[in-house]
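for ur thesis appendix - UDP-N-acetylmuramoylalanine--D-glutamate ligase. copy paste whatever u need, i formatted it the way the template wanted (i think)
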Amino acid sequence: MQRLVILGGGESGVGTAILGKKKGYDVFVSDKGKIKNNYREVLTINGIKWEDETHTEKKILNADVVMKSPGIPDKSPIVKALREKGIPVISEIEFACKHTKAKTVGITGSNGKTTTTMLTYHLLKSGGLNVGLGGNIGKSFAWQVAEDKFDWYVLELSSFQLDGIVDYKPEIAIITNISPDHLDRYDYKYEKYIDSKFRITMNQKKDDFLIYDADDEAITNWLQNNKIKAQLIPFSITKQFKNGAYLKDNNMEVNINEEEFIMETEHIALEGKHNMKNAMAATSVAKLMQIRKATIRESLSNFQGVEHRLEKVLKIGNVQYINDSKATNVNATFFALDSMTTPTVWIVGGVDKGNDYSELMPLVREKVKGIICLGLDNKKIIDAFGAVVDVMIEVDNMVDAVRMGQRMTEKGDAVLLSPACASFDLFENYEDRGRQFKQAVQNL
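the 3d part is after this line
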């Protein structure tokens, strides 16, 4: 019996444990932190051995294969010890793909991947396909494979998940864009992070597809300098293609396999230039899968968007409060500020992942009337923008941030939570941060 050790007792870890047990592995879960009660119960009910708040080396280093949760860095001592012993360390995606005949659409990118994943899933499900949603979002891919119900999965894939693949290949891959993010995990080398994203296509064959942003410099440079086997489908808001997706006279046009799909952009539910790209990418998948045009049209016009991503919370005293807690890097915040049409008080800060704020400068000068720093260490933000805005204050909790936002605004303004940073200094995660923002706004 092969021994499967799982590092991390969260959603991906527990899902992998359930699939491993079903497939006849001797499974052990080890988490350096505390495993949440609901996951402990699941493991116990399924007769899976586990430990938390420690890694017992002798129970881990006897593994045949190890599934590492994406949050655990390669530099951690236990992972180093496993690699020194030559024990394979893989991601949940790699483990699960070996145990299903389902096909996958794999979606990665620094920003836009959640929206693109949700929209792609919405289009395929509305088109009548038997499709699951997983990866970095919702219920773990491995857990769903254990219950094996779907013919297709739409998977949101982070660079950390892609770092742990060996044979996984999506039939259709999407790279939404690439901008510096998580550089602390890639020795502060942007090239390493870019290579990591392109692992999504490394096993693709000539009848597979790679859909990508042709306006993105990092992506187009990489494609010029590296050979891949998949068929390329570009999308762009500045160029037009014979085979691909683009904008023309306020229409989104998608040409794939000599067949054209045209939709007026004003009827697409998602707003903003970046969302137009997300819509192009998702529509390209729907066209490849031969979903009916009428279905695509209807799905694009009724899509609800993603929680914590430019989510309009409430208007109070004619001031719009917007929750963009999912913006955990500078590039995501760039899109948020770019989409603002009224004077804005910007709530920013958290755990900095090696951010360069200079690209936000023109937008801050143009749109931001005040900045509220919400983090334990705000020095970089203060140094970057202190001289640019009239008012800049520091707070250490969401209630104060929202109250100060209310004081600093007048009718017709907006308060935007778009932190450009990770949330772990003051919050559990970006969802917790977003929910606290919404709660604080509702309590005003």
